[in-house]
Write a structure and sequence with these properties.
The protein has 233 residues and is α+β, with helices and mostly antiparallel strands. The protein is 33% helix and 25% strand. It is found in: Mitochondrion inner membrane.
Length: 233
């Protein structure tokens, strides 16, 4: 959960988000090295009288051609690795379908029979003490921790986007099309997100809440929902 005056990312709660944070730090260090080198050369040119003949300086031309290529390779290789990791889904333990509407989400646990519910934002007048305004919902998404989860995202009316920053997930919900992604939570917790595609007047009022729980709790929760109506949280 983000806090006031936070400059960095939220705490990573999935392997993909951990890789994204590490790549962000790696890219920032490369950018810092480039800026420092450029600043040093500019300072040197302004303060020193350089007598180097740059017209025939083939060594310098070779350096400023090869060095940027090396920098691009250092940025491209880890980036491609993360892209393939985000796109790879190997034998998920659970499939969750998220359907975007104006302005709420519908979730379907396709591995269970008749396990479907709508998730609306909790109004401020009904918000329990200690909960977050504009981020809490009446029905949370419950998933087992340390289990690969496949998430299928679509929409029924306009463009939406299912995004949970601490899990490193942001997938567009497009009417008539199924997009899929995967998550693995590394610890139990409650993770908040929001629709990240402008979808109308109440775009900012369709939050996402994912609760990661141990497997026995998830099994008892799913059994309870299969036999009784879904209670409000």
């Amino acid at each position: 959960m983000a806090n006031h005056l936070q400059l960095g990312f939220q705490d990573a709660s999935s392997p993909i988000m951990e890789e994204l944070v590490e790549f962000h730090d790696h890219a920032l260090m490369v950018a810092l090295a480039i800026c420092s080198l450029v600043l040093y050369i500019l300072t040197l040119m302004l303060t020193e009288k350089l007598s180097t003949n740059t017209v025939d300086a083939q060594e310098i031309e070779l350096i400023w051609t090869i060095l940027p290529a090396i920098v691009l390779i250092l940025l491209a290789l880890p980036s491609l690795q993360i892209l393939y990791m985000m796109d790879e889904i190997n034998e998920p333990d659970l499939t969750l379908k998220a359907i975007g509407h104006q302005w709420y989400w519908t979730y379907e646990y396709t591995d269970f029979k008749d396990l479907t519910f709508d998730s609306y934002m909790t109004p401020s007048s009904e918000l329990p003490p200690g909960h977050f305004r504009l981020l809490e919902v009446d029905h949370r998404v419950i998933i087992p921790m340390e289990s690969p989860i496949r998430i299928i995202v679509t929409a029924s009316d306009v463009l939406h986007s299912w995004a949970v920053p601490s899990l490193g997930v942001k997938t567009d919900a497009i009417p008539g099309r199924l997009n899929q992604t995967s998550i693995v939570t590394t610890r139990p917790g409650i993770y908040y997100g929001q629709c990240s595609e402008i979808c109308g007047a109440n775009h900012s009022y369709m939050p996402i809440v994912v609760e990661s729980t141990p497997l026995p709790y998830f099994e008892s929760w799913s059994s309870l929902l299969s036999s009784s109506p879904l209670p409000n949280l």
